[in-house]
Every structure is written in structure tokens, then in C-alpha cells.
Write a structure and sequence with these properties.
The protein is of the alpha+beta class. The protein has 2 domains: about 70 residues, no CATH class; about 80 residues, no CATH class. Helix content is about 30%, strand content about 25%. The protein contains 5 helices and 11 strands, in the order ααββββαβββββααββ. A 4-stranded mixed β-sheet has the order 9-8-11-10. Strands 2-1-5 form a 3-stranded mixed β-sheet. The chain has a two-stranded antiparallel sheet with strand order 3-4. A hairpin with a 2-residue loop joins strand 6 and strand 7. The longest helix has about 40 residues. The N and C termini lie far apart (about 125 Å).
Amino acid sequence: MYRALALFSLVLTTLACADDSTENQGASGSGGDVGAGAAGGLGGSGGSLLGCDACDDLCLVDGCDEPSFRCEVGMSLCDGLPSGPICGCNGETLEAEYGSCEFGQSETPFADAALCQTGTFLCGPSECVRNAEVCIVIDGGAAGEPTYECRTLNEVKGSCSTIPSCECIGITDLCNIGDCDCTADADHQETISIPAAP
């Protein structure tokens, strides 16, 4: 009789273990589904990390709502010709000598410069567009008053990528007469002063 009880107990234990194993397999399978879902999520809205994984050097994340990814070779040290400020997705300008590189190091998305190119600043009697134009002041010399004009980034580009800054504006290209001076106001809007012709 004891043998029969022991055998019955062994059968019950084996069945219980089989049930636990089935439950664990179910939980494991469920966990696998969740993991697959998370991976799918990374490929979608959280795609910045996956997109940048393809880059061996620096990854530029261009755009805020639907970013695209650009690998830049040889920029990871943020040196060489300065690229100037860049526009953040919050509409604020990151004032930096190497703005795109600094954003790239942290894989932070940046916006089209137009988002930051709002409002105006005074340039003599004129008004220039903030973060899009610079104020050019040409000294009239002893004979006359200075003249003022607004010039776009394309006209004074130098090495600036999207937003002008004294660090990257091509001042030497503008100043074939004497020495020019580039200054920025408290809002980081640039004025270039060009001396009068001799």
C-alpha cells in the first residue's frame, strides 16, 4: 500500500511540474512578444538610435517630427572650419562655433533654420531678418553718411551652415578694402562694418 501511495505522489509531482513548465513557457512566449513590440517601437518613433547605429563617426539627426539621419565622416572632434549656430527643435538657436557637430555628438535632432529665423533687428533705418541676414554698414568716409543694407547668409556665407555668426562669416571675402569688423548684439545678431574706400 505504501508503494502505491508513493507512486501516486510521484505522478502528482510530475504533473505539477509539467503545469509549471507550461506556464513558464507561456510567460516566456509572452515576454518575447513584448520584446518584439519594443524593437518595433525603436524602429518607429524612437528611431534616432537605430538610425545613428549605422554611423561609424558622427550622426546628424536632421528634422524634428520625422528625422532623417546623416553620417558625417571626420567631424567627431568638432574642429576645422566653424559651421556656426544651429536651430533646435524648440525654435531656439544654439549659439556654438560647431553647432551641428555638438548636436551630432549627442544625437539630438535639429530643425530647419527657418524655425529660428523669425522677427527682425535694426540695421540703421532698415530691418534685417533675425538669424537669416546680417547688417552691413559701409562707412561713407569724410564725404558722407554710412550706408546700411541687409545681406543673406548666402551672400556672406563663409563656412556658416544655416545661421550666420561672426565666427563663420566670410569676412575676408567682404573686406577687400582695409579691415572689417564683425560684432554681435545681445541677441546674437551680426553687424559687419566695412571701412570707406581710400
